[in-house]
Design goal:
The protein has eleven helices and eight strands. It has 349 residues and is an alpha/beta fold. The structure holds uridine-5'-diphosphate (UDP) and magnesium ion.
Length: 349
């Protein structure tokens, strides 16, 4: 597709095991896009689903030609799936939206109208009401955004997730950033391009269960902090200094007790000091390890994801309806097209 053929709008939808939600999502999305009165593509990124998601998406293409399917060969995480979508989207504007209908597709048109009317590069979907989220989700998300606003700046909205519109210029800049594990909800505000907001009440997941278990939430949080701040390393230094001061005081105390002849009692304090210093050292080592690990994987420059097929790719158009992923030698050759950008598994949202 040449630049002249590029659609006005690409809607990027990462999906991981969303078989229950796809029919409901399509039912809401299609009427919205059909009233657009301009060209669009719905770029679904199947993040290595192991349920009927790939079959449903390929089947959908028969009745909705604007649907494009990119399948990743393995589950690479929400942010990596977003990266795959952003790197492949061809629209003049690109909207990213979750598949579970927590973000209302009807707001896409409002975002587009606002961006065009005010010549904006970014329009954030901002949640005005998170009451449908679980208590745990609200607490972890609150904590996450408090920390991240300190690390990445006040431009990070505590209520904006990954439902947003980006202009072509913004997507092109994002594609050039060397981030190894991008966290878009921080990276996009950091860019500081002209932006606006569209507000909405966060709805409940329409079907299925969250694809963000605690492990993915922790990983997103770690990626977010290490991407934007070296403060944890400074925290390690402060902890070390505090421990040193504490140990110095205890050393004076124990020498004084020795000189006064009280040497036998003290097992408990000794035990506590050993435990405490050991704990602090381990925490500091762990923090250091997080950064070293990220430097290591950034240096390796391994792709964030591997594309099994892209229905817009002429070679991928003949992809079988039922993907035979692990044993497809021809698809392996196309893996070289996998973006070198950033992976990322994910977290508190
Ligand atoms: N997702 C994905 N890969 C993953 C996890 C999630 O592509 O490894 C997609 C998922 O299908 C959904 C979006 O990311 O479209 C957000 O996930 P979810 O709604 O489960 O997260 P939550 O809203 O519970 O934080
Ligand atoms: Mg959700």
């Amino acid at each position: 597709m040449s630049a002249a053929d590029s659609p006005l709008l690409s809607v990027v939808v990462p999906m991981y095991n969303e078989e229950e939600v796809i029919p409901l999502f399509i039912e809401r999305l299609r009427p919205v896009l059909d009233t657009l009165g301009d060209s669009y593509e719905v770029l679904t990124v199947d993040d290595g689903s192991v349920d009927a998601t790939p079959q449903l998406l390929l089947g959908l293409r028969r009745v909705w030609p604007q649907v494009r399917v990119i399948r990743l060969r393995r589950n690479s995480g929400h942010q990596a799936a977003l990266t795959a979508g952003l790197h492949s989207a061809r629209g003049a504007y690109v909207v990213s939206i979750d598949a579970d209908l927590q973000d209302p597709p009807e707001k896409i048109l409002e975002m587009l109208t606002l961006a065009r009317a005010r010549n904006l590069d970014i329009v954030y979907g901002v949640r005005t009401d998170r009451s449908t989220d679980t208590f745990f989700k609200r607490i972890t998300a609150g904590l996450y955004y408090t920390v991240m606003r300190r690390c990445a700046g006040r431009a990070v909205s505590p209520n904006a997730g990954d439902f947003r519109l980006l202009s072509r210029a913004t997507v092109d800049v994002l594609k050039t950033l060397p981030e190894h594990q991008p966290v878009y909800r921080l990276l996009v505000p950091w860019m500081g391009f002209p932006s606006g907001e569209v507000t909405y009440a966060r709805e409940q997941r329409a079907a299925g269960r969250t694809k963000y278990p605690l492990s993915k939430m922790i990983r997103l949080a770690l990626d977010s902090v290490t991407n934007f701040s070296a403060s944890p390393l400074r925290l390690a230094t402060w902890l070390g200094m505090l421990t040193f001061a504490g140990c110095l005081a205890l050393a004076c105390f124990s020498v004084a007790r020795h000189l006064l002849g009280f040497t036998v009692p003290g097992w408990t304090s000794l035990f506590l000091v050993v435990l405490f210093t050991g704990g602090v050292q381990l925490v500091c080592l762990g923090l250091l390890g997080e950064y070293v690990g990220r430097i290591h994987s950034a240096l390796q420059r391994r792709p964030a994801y591997f594309i099994a097929y892209d229905t817009a790719d002429p070679a991928g158009a003949s992809t079988p309806t039922v993907p035979r992923l692990p044993t497809q030698p021809d698809a392996a050759a196309r893996n070289s097209t996998a973006a070198m950008a950033a992976p990322a598994k994910d977290g508190p949202r």
